Amino acid sequence: MRAVVYRETGPSSVLQVVERELPDPGPGEVRVRLARAGVNPTDWKFRANAMNGDWSEVVPGQDGAGVVDAVGPGVEGLKQGERVWTVLAQYQRPGGTAAEFTVQPAERVVPLPVGASWDLGAALGVPAVTAHRALTAGEDVTRLAPGSMSGMRVLVAGGAGAVGNAGIQLARWAGATVVSTVSSDEKAALAVAAGAHHTVNYKVGDPAAEIQALCPEGVDLVVEVAFAQNIGLDVQVLRNRGTIAYYADNGGAEASVPVRGTFAKNLRLQGVLLYTLGADLVEAATADVNAAVSAGAFRVGEDAGLPLHHYPLEELAAAHDAVQGGAVGKVLVDVSDDLG
């Protein structure tokens, strides 16, 4: 099988296309033949900064979509030929999704709803599960379903990003009023296409005043990509007992938290990292995300505010560079074209 590997950390040039033996699934594992793989910021960060374990060779990639090709002993709930998507495929394992086949624990492989495309399946994983956890990190909602966020007001920072897009789509499906901050008219159009009711350009005027005018009772929850940069604004616009769920360190690795402002409102500051969620939260997230996909409420593409950028497997380095360079939309890798 073809795979892309790296044997040392560094720039995208450390990635190499190789031929490898087809791996066999062990007990509790399945082998997935991949049609599409997704590329996320975490992929190039692992490659550039950490090998993700003690292995001498790593196949990158957390996200992908394809067909179960073989089932190991003891696996229940998945069968050969089933269409699936992956979550946490590279976490604490050397074999991710930048390959024609990947062997994964069954709990990291999720049935792909009928009618969902490979592009959509490969775009779920990191963005959708992260967004789900952010939206359920407060004290009001633990699961997402139609109406579960009815009456709530959600602020999604950076709504044109992949996690922001997922947050908008899932919050809108769950019944929330969604406001998104953006940095340009073009990104505002993407956030609206994803389902945002309102957008606020944080580079123009007084964004806090604009958000307060839209949500005079305060925002219930903030899905935050730039905690260090936006903590002051978030505290201003949140209601009492609101939540900031932050999942990245864009805008700075250290934050200065207004102590009185946060405790006076009884605010909750919730960090979100996919890798340490725990199996129960990942399982809840994949179930709710699949429900949204089945309902047609979670989509990809320009008309869903998430433009797609396709690269062949042999050009994974260019795909990593595109994500690292801030590509707007979702970067996907075309692994196989003959899975239907």
TrEMBL record:
Gene3D superfamilies: Medium-chain alcohol dehydrogenases, catalytic domain, NAD(P)-binding Rossmann-like Domain. It is an enzyme of class 1 (oxidoreductase). Keywords: NADP, Oxidoreductase. The keyword NADP applies. One of its GO terms (molecular function) is quinone reductase (NADPH) activity. Its EC number is 1.6.5.5. The keyword Oxidoreductase applies. InterPro entries: ADH-like_C, ADH-like_N, ER, GroES-like_sf, NAD(P)-bd_dom_sf, Zinc-ADH_QOR/CCCR. Residues 10-333 form the Enoyl reductase (ER) domain. It comes from the Bacteria. This is NADPH2:quinone reductase.
